[in-house]
């Protein structure tokens, strides 16, 4: 799962015993060589779907990390692309990977907490990839309110969400064990490291987005396959600011 140039077991252990911010600062130089980076197999179909929804003038990558999603935004935004993350180390790695900035769109990297975004309603599009497990369920309403506040009327908040693992499957037990281990870790060790895979449920998220002032649609991502019952393995949530 990890490239030979990726983090060692000791480095992962140190990261796991740190806070979220400090942990990602430590992991940043090798993050792109871990399975935690959103794979191109996910980014490519999302990019296709956004091309069909766009074009857009300005885009925000929420919890951008080293910038995997920034590449998607650069393909669909004409004027401005902004990445926001709480980890200075991840932002520095993203800037370094980007190299010389292109003429358009303008690219910005901003250190900020996603729960307190330092922008007005200036974006047409916001995306996020793989970051929602870092927010407890009680924090999501404020998170979604923040995204709503930085979108222009009619702006869209878009992110992929995978179908839950079938009860009793290998994936189900793996995620259950991970979340249980994380809860034990946070009960015994401080600072806490919030990362839970099973708390971001589509029905709950859809209701919370609606309450935040979004109109929510779901789009299948057929490139990512279907489950045995015919349902998509992954959907794209498209939440449009309606008020």
What's the rounded overall pLDDT mean?
91
Q: Taking Cα atoms only, what radius of gyration do you get, to the nearest Å?
A: 18 Å
Number of domains: 2
Using the coordinates shown, work out and report the CATH topology of the largest domain. Answer: Rossmann fold
Q: Can you tell me the CATH class of the largest domain?
A: Alpha Beta
Looking at CATH, the homologous superfamily of the largest domain is: Vaccinia Virus protein VP39
Helix vs. strand class: alpha/beta
What is the helix fraction of residues, given as a range? 25-40%
Shape: globular
The count of strands amounts to 7
With helices defined by DSSP (H or I, 4 residues minimum), what is the helix count?
A: 8
pLDDT < 50 runs, ≥5 residues: none
Pfam families: Methyltransf_25 (PF13649)
GO molecular function: methyltransferase activity
Organism: Streptomyces sioyaensis
InterPro entries: Methyltransf_25, SAM-dependent_MTases_sf
């Amino acid at each position: 799962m990890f490239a030979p140039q990726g983090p060692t077991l000791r480095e992962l252990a140190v990261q796991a015993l740190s806070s979220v911010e400090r942990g990602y600062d430590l992991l940043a130089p090798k993050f792109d060589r871990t399975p935690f980076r959103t794979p191109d197999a996910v980014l490519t179909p999302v990019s296709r779907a956004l091309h069909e929804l766009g074009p857009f003038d300005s885009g925000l990558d929420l919890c951008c990390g080293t910038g995997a999603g920034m590449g998607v935004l650069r393909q669909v935004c004409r004027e401005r692309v902004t990445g926001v993350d709480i980890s200075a180390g991840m932002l520095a790695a993203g800037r370094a990977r980007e190299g010389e900035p292109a003429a358009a769109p303008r690219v910005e990297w901003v250190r900020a907490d996603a729960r307190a975004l330092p922008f007005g309603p200036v974006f047409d599009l916001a995306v996020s990839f793989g970051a929602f497990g870092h927010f407890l369920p009680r924090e999501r309403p404020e998170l979604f309110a923040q995204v709503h506040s930085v979108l222009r009327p009619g702006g869209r908040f878009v992110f992929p969400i995978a179908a839950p693992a079938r009860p009793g499957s290998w994936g189900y037990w793996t995620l259950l064990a991970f979340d249980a281990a994380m809860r034990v870790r946070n009960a015994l060790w401080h600072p806490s490291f919030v990362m839970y895979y099973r708390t971001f449920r589509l029905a709950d998220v859809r209701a919370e987005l609606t309450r935040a002032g979004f109109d929510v649609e779901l789009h299948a991502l057929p490139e990512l396959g279907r489950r045995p019952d015919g349902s998509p393995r992954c959907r794209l949530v498209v939440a449009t600011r309606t008020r």
